[in-house]
Structure formats: structure tokens, C-alpha cells
Design goal:
Layout: H1 3-11, H2 17-23, H3 29-39, E1 47-51, H4 57-64, E2 68-72, H5 76-85, E3 91-92, E4 106-112, H6 120-130, E5 131-144, H7 149-162, E6 183-194, H8 195-203, H9 206-209, H10 213-230, E7 235-248
Parallel strand pairs: 1-2, 1-4, 2-3, 4-5
Antiparallel strand pairs: 5-7, 6-7
Helix pairs in contact: 2-8, 8-10
Length: 251
Amino acid sequence: MTDSDRSRRALSFETAADQYDAARPGYPPALFDAVEELSGRPLTGARTVDVGAGTGIATRLLRERGARVTAVEPGAAMADRFRRSLPGVPLVRGVGDALPLADASADFLTYAQSFHWTDPARSLPEALRVLRPGGALALWWNVADRDVPWIAAQEERLRRDFGGAAHGAPGAARALPDGVPCAEHRLYWTRRVPLDTHLANLGSHSLFLVAGKAAARAFLDRERAGLLRLFPDGSVEEAYAVDLTVTRRPA
């Protein structure tokens, strides 16, 4: 993906902030257990920066674990939706490649579904600058579980029609540059949602948002018809793997 393609797709979420917030999945409690285990420190009481926070889906869960969270979000519409959802959480506008934060000011930096929108050559040094000695950078993605036949088939249709996948595909590849010491973990979870929510979730991905309304609508209409044959009660079980990568600033 070129820099201009990455920028265009990253900014596409500005057109769908409410849809994103309503339809995107959260993360299972086991993810945050794994973050603590791999980082060797608790989230409770930790000064945590959630970068690319979007509408606050991960931020909310980090707060529920007791973290003291500051969010960083570049998009105006996503930031507005965040403020409506989490009015008491500090939010600053900025990007991971140039964090508007002081040196050694955070115990954790987290990226939920967002590190692939950065340039690691810049965002990794920035994260290490902002982390305190011994602090942890945690990156994670919900990735479609392709071991589930209907999900694998849907992914193939996405590749055929749009040339890519929608469900967190960047998490399937190594997130950090070679040579960076890190720990990696994968865990699985599911959620059951109405078919409309599944389609709204699908349509909130950048692959659809940049494709044009006509192409996106035609694909989603075909998906609705096909999935109703598989799930005649209109309830879809989405299956995910969460890919987690953690690295630490040396103490």
C-alpha cells in the first residue's frame, strides 16, 4: 500500500464514525490478561496512551481494567464521537508518527486496530520515547478466523471483488520490524450479532469506505442474501482471532 493509499484509507473512517462505533467488535477480557502477562505489569493504575483510539472501543475496555487512559486520535469526526462516548477521558489530536506527548510519560502505549496506519520507522521510536523505562507497547488486531468456512468464503469474495480482506488482515503479519524483540500471542473469541450489525461492521472497513457507495452496497446486498441462507434466524456468529504483539522499552 502506498503512503497516499494508506492516508486515504485511514481518513475514510471520518465518513462512518457512528457506524464504526455501533457495529465494530470489542475485545475479550483474555486479551487484557495477555497484555499484562506479556508486559509483566498490571493495567490497573497504569498511565496508558491509546493511539488511534477511534471512537473509544478499546479505550473504554482499558478504563474498565483500571488503566488511566489518554487517547490520541487524528480524525475530527472520530474524535467527536469519542468525546460523546467518553466525555471524561482526555483526548488529544495527533498521529502515532509524531505523538504530542512528553518523553517518558506513559507506562503503556496501545494500538487497537491502528498500528498499520503508521510508518513503523517513525512510530516505533516515538512510542519508545513516550514510554517510561520498562514500559510496554501493545499492538493488537481482531482478525477474521479463516478456519470457519463461511468466513473464509466471505474473505475470498472480498478478495475477488475488492482485491483485499476487510477483517483486520494486517494483524496476520509481523507488526514490528525484524530485529525488534517482542512477544506475540493469538487468542480466539466469538460474538453473536444481528445480520444487520454484521453487515454494518463489514461496511465500516476502509476497503468499503473507499470503494464507492454503489460497489459497497451491491456487495453487501449479495452478502445479506447469502448469509440469510446460512443463518435463517438473522443471527450471525462472527469468529475472530486476536493477534497481539508486545515490546518493552528497556528498563
